Amino acid sequence: MFDEKFVRDLPEDPNLAGKEICDKLEDLVVESIRNSSQEKYEQVLIGMGLLQAFVEGFNFPIHFPKLDGEIANNIRIIRNFLLEIRPLLERAYINGQSNKFKEIIQKKYPEEFFYKFTEGDLKRIQSLIDELRTIISETKGLEDDHKSRLLGRLESLQSELHKSVSDLDKFWGLLIDASIVLRKVGENAKPIVDRVREIVDIIWRVQIRAEELPSNTPLELPSITESSKEGKPRSEEE
Asked: Model-level pTM?
């Protein structure tokens, strides 16, 4: 499972390698919950050790939880920890994928590559940002400093929104912001999530046009999203 071969076979890109470690760790947590297996639990601990070494080696801003020695409780702590760091890992995964494609495209079109928005794209994103600014200011349960950070991000996005841009990273960052807000305020975040999702859909269309992918190419997030749903403990489902 987690051994020297696994480490040697990890992708060269640290962002993609971190996602692969966590995918495998998520799978083991799911199996440990379903089967109450001591062997799987020991592999989970080994995986956590590998993840910690990886995080410390590349200075990812992740803090590991304390475990209390009871297996069932430790598994819950580890599972919640993986759920909490998922936004960061998804963001790193998206960055890794984007950088991979960007390098290929820039070699093919040196000094000429830009992501291009249509006039309709620009107007709709501007409108959605204006709506988000109002909604965020009025959202209950969201701390004032968090509201300020989100409003600052929107202001930055709006100032950089032009018909041609060389980088979409800040737009993709909205996806992570929405995920964090959803975890903090639950259903109150739905108006924010809905509008961010529409912006992300526009950004995805812009990106697949630039990278000459089929127009019906779906947006697929890392598999850790699905595995975390499958691994929901029975006690939480009930």
From this structure: 0.47
